């Protein structure tokens, strides 16, 4: 299910196809109108909270700057059948990084009553359960913890699948509404957790010879985007940390530096 269509670029980044239900996919209908109405509703909400509006715009500017979405113009806008995903802010005051995140609603129904998520497959669970990972970490003398930075957005989707992840947006209400495509695995789509975790597993398998400690940690000690691993001595802990986040080849480009506890 995962290997078909998966590619790895020269920079080490993976491109994956969205796993689709071929029987339901053709039933996706018109979605632009509801995405437009939802955009206007989001803009009204943002107009009532200037701080929220600034954070929303900053989030979308970063999305565009990092190449995680691209602007669609001219004939390219109409050349492909598109599924438009509404979007809205989610505020997490407890977050130490991004307090406002933009969530894309892949469960929004198109005109026949079928959503993009209805047409996608969820994929199996490929990681250990969280309880086992935590219990295993408590047996180690040195604990290393971290999380994966922008986990889903580190993985590209194929160009064929990107029209299914179209959005309407404008950075200011006095601008014209523009079509964008999301270029990466998108939070809110049904297979996103599987694609992200399975890609990490694939990365571990490919790079195990070069980075055995990091590969083992990824296979056994990661739950979604949380790294909870450890060792019994300082030298091994340092080597593991270097393999995960500081190796010269930057193979583990998903990772932010680990904290040793």
Adjacency order of strands in the biggest sheet: 10-11-6-12
| Tally of separate helices | 7
Name the poorly predicted regions.
254-258
The helix-strand sequence is EEHHEHEEHEEEEHHEEHE
Calculate Rg over CA atoms.
20 Å
Protein name: Peptidase aspartic putative domain-containing protein
Organism: Aedes albopictus
Care to give the gist of this entry?
With 261 residues, the chain is α+β, with helices and mostly antiparallel strands. Helices cover 31% and strands 18% of the residues.
In words, what does this structure look like?
This is Peptidase aspartic putative domain-containing protein. Helix content is 31%, strand content 18%. With 261 residues, it is α+β, with helices and mostly antiparallel strands. Helix 6 packs across helix 7. The chain is globular, with a radius of gyration of 20 Å. The two termini are 38 Å apart. The model is unreliable at 254-258 (pLDDT under 50).
Compile the SSE list and pairings.
Elements: E1 7-8, E2 14-16, H1 32-47, H2 50-65, E3 69-72, H3 75-78, E4 87-91, E5 100-104, H4 130-137, E6 142-147, E7 156-157, E8 166-169, E9 178-182, H5 192-207, H6 212-220, E10 222-223, E11 226-231, H7 234-246, E12 259-260
Parallel strand pairs: 2-7
Antiparallel strand pairs: 1-2, 3-9, 4-5, 6-11, 6-12, 8-9, 10-11
Helix pairs in contact: 1-2, 5-6, 6-7
Organism: Aedes albopictus (Asian tiger mosquito)
Protein name: Peptidase aspartic putative domain-containing protein
InterPro entries: DNA/RNA_pol_sf
């Amino acid at each position: 299910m995962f290997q078909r269509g998966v590619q790895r670029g020269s920079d080490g980044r993976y491109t994956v196809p969205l796993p689709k239900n071929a029987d339901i996919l053709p039933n996706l209908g018109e979605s632009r109108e509801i995405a437009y109405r939802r955009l206007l509703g989001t803009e009204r909400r943002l107009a009532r909270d200037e701080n929220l509006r600034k954070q929303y715009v900053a989030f979308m500017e970063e999305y565009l700057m990092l190449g995680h979405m691209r602007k669609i113009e001219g004939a390219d806008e109409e050349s492909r059948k598109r599924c438009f995903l509404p979007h809205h802010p989610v505020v997490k005051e407890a977050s130490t990084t991004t307090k406002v995140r933009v969530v894309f609603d892949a469960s929004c129904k198109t005109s026949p009553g079928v959503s993009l998520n209805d047409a996608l497959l969820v994929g199996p669970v490929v990681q250990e359960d969280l309880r086992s990972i935590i219990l295993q970490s408590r047996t180690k003398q040195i604990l290393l913890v971290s999380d994966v930075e922008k986990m889903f957005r580190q993985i590209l989707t194929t160009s064929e699948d990107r029209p299914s992840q179209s959005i309407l947006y404008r950075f200011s209400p006095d601008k014209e509404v523009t079509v964008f495509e999301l270029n990466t695995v998108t939070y809110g789509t049904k297979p996103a957790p599987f694609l992200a975790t399975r890609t990490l597993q694939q990365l571990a398998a490919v790079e195990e010879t070069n980075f055995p400690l990091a590969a083992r940690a990824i296979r056994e000690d990661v739950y979604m985007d949380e790294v909870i691993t450890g060792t019994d001595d300082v030298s091994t802990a340092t080597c593991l940390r270097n393999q995960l986040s500081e190796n010269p080849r930057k193979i583990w480009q998903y990772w932010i530096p680990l904290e040793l506890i």
